[in-house]
Amino acid sequence: MTFNLLIVDDSKTVRAVIKKALRMAGVPTNEVHEAANGQEALEVVADHWIDLILADINMPVMNGIEMIQRLFADDSTSSIPVIVVSSEGSTTRIDELKKSNVCGYVRKPFQPEELREALLAALGNPDE
């Protein structure tokens, strides 16, 4: 089984690092979409089937928190799992995210295996 993923981060370099980490970790992907902010991410979700979103928090135009709130408020997108990939270290912010039904948190910098574990926990193990 392969997955359609959306990587949301304002840094093109970070998006490339996440894509490379996914390949290195052997995550079975089909389509990997990218967005530079929450607004672009919502547009991608409106036009494509997305199985999981990997999102940063601090971005221009629309931050990750607002994007997550909009996703979860819409019945057509509320079931898409979101994993936050951020350098945010605030325990208050992380607790807020966990309360908003975010299914995982990976702190930058990360190892490919950490990303894989978070994805498999959110999507289930495709090898089973």
Automatic annotation (TrEMBL):
SMART domains: REC. The keyword Metal-binding does not apply. Residues 4-123 form the Response regulatory domain. The keyword tRNA-binding does not apply. PANTHER family: TWO-COMPONENT RESPONSE REGULATOR (PTHR43228), TWO-COMPONENT RESPONSE REGULATOR ARR22 (PTHR43228:SF1). PROSITE patterns: RESPONSE_REGULATORY. The modification 4-aspartylphosphate is found at residue 56. Keywords: Phosphoprotein. This is Response regulatory domain-containing protein. It comes from the Bacteria. InterPro entries: CheY-like_superfamily, Sig_transdc_resp-reg_receiver, ST_Response_Regulator. It comes from Engelhardtia mirabilis. GO terms for biological process: phosphorelay signal transduction system.
